[in-house]
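Tokens for chain A. Residues wanted.
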């Protein structure tokens, strides 16, 4: 539901999202195994890359050296939320850029009503950008 108002530009990611959405609306769950067996090749490659663990910590780190790593499953919810916010942050930045271009065009046409509407939209987008950046713990200085 976090992505309902966001458009995916990458076709493979759009396919994954729309498939999840379709199954959710049918009351079903879909997992990575579904995509690995039923999806087009580019999607299979992405799903494999996202789901396969690249690095494993030696069990000796914890038993011998008493150094412990959190398991990916323990922090999955936190990482999922941060990744959703990052996607929204990039999406809002793209909308800000598009709005800037519309504003430039409106200034060339000297359309005061349109300029006012676009400036108001720019302010709303920037406020959303700052809020998400704050939640992510990053400085949003690109559009100041």
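Reply:
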């Amino acid at each position: 539901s976090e992505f309902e108002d966001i458009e995916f530009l990458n076709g493979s990611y759009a396919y994954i999202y729309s498939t999840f959405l379709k199954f959710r609306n049918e009351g079903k769950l879909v997992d990575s195994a579904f995509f690995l067996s039923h999806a087009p090749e580019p999607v299979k490659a992405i799903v494999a890359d996202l789901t396969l663990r690249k690095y494993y910590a030696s069990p000796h780190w914890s038993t011998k050296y008493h150094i412990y790593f959190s398991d990916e499953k323990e922090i999955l919810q936190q990482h999922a939320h941060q990744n959703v916010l990052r996607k929204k942050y990039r999406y809002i930045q793209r909308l800000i850029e598009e709005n800037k271009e519309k504003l430039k065009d409106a200034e060339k046409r000297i359309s005061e009503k349109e300029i006012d509407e676009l400036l108001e939209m720019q302010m709303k987008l920037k406020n959303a950008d700052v809020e998400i950046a704050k939640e992510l713990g990053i400085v949003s200085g690109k559009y100041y």
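Residues 16 and 39 are 9 Å apart (CA to CA). The chain is about 65% helix and 0% strand.
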